[in-house]
């Protein structure tokens, strides 16, 4: 009789669903984030911190943790970063969901959601492991483009 100790970890993050619920406009997101944005504004943070805080944090996530995160899966940090970006734009009274950076972010989070679901399907189809790896590499490439578009957005105002 053999015993195998195998632990399966499944995760779900509802953040991408919030984005879907907000389509086609940003009004819902603005109303959801409104109280938090007002709180952040009341802190009187330096403009440079509000403007460059999200890019700085996300650069750490993408570059320092991205390599290892690609191996382990870092959906949570990217989804959390999206909330930071939205908060940063709203705190600066800038439009949201209207830039190529927002589009690539939404596509990236959607692909990360698919990436998160794929391991639950591995048992019946071992070929999905290859899809999972290729998709993960593609997502990291997309997030490099996303970072470049974010830098352009940050420099535009």
Keywords:
mainly alpha; 157 residues; single chain
DSSP strand tally: 0
Query: H/E order of the elements?
Result: HHHHHHH
Helix content: over 70%
**Could you describe the largest sheet, including whether it forms a barrel?**
none
| Low-confidence residue ranges | none
Transmembrane segments: 15-37, 58-82, 102-122, 134-155
Keywords: Membrane, Transmembrane, Transmembrane helix
Lay out the secondary structure.
Elements: H1 15-22, H2 27-42, H3 47-64, H4 66-72, H5 75-91, H6 100-117, H7 127-155
Helix pairs in contact: 2-5, 3-5, 3-7, 5-6, 6-7
Protein model, in words:
With 157 residues, the protein is mainly α. It has one domain (15-155). The chain is built from seven helices and no strands. It has helices at residues 15-22, 27-42, 47-64, 66-72, 75-91, 100-117, 127-155. The radius of gyration is 18 Å and the shape is elongated. The mean pLDDT is 83. Keywords: Membrane, Transmembrane, Transmembrane helix. The chain crosses the membrane at residues 15-37, 58-82, 102-122, 134-155. InterPro entries: DUF4079.
Question: Care to give the gist of this entry?
Answer:
The protein has 157 residues and is an all-alpha fold. 72% of the residues lie in helices and 0% in strands. Helix 5 runs antiparallel to helix 6.
């Amino acid at each position: 009789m053999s015993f195998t100790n195998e632990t399966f970890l499944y995760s779900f993050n509802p953040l991408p669903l919030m984005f879907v619920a907000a389509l086609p406009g940003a009004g819902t997101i603005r109303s959801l984030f409104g109280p938090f944005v007002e709180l952040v504004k009341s802190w009187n943070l330096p403009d440079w911190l509000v403007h460059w805080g999200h890019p700085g944090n996300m650069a750490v996530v993408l570059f320092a943790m991205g390599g290892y995160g690609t191996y382990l899966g870092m959906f949570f940090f990217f989804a959390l970063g999206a909330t930071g970006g939205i908060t940063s734009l709203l705190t600066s009274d800038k439009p949201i969901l209207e830039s190529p950076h927002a589009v690539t972010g939404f596509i990236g989070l959607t692909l990360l959601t698919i990436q998160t679901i794929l391991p639950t399907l591995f048992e019946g189809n071992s070929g999905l492991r290859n899809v999972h790896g290729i998709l993960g590499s593609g997502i990291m490439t997309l997030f490099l483009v996303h970072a470049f578009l974010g830098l352009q957005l940050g420099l535009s105002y």
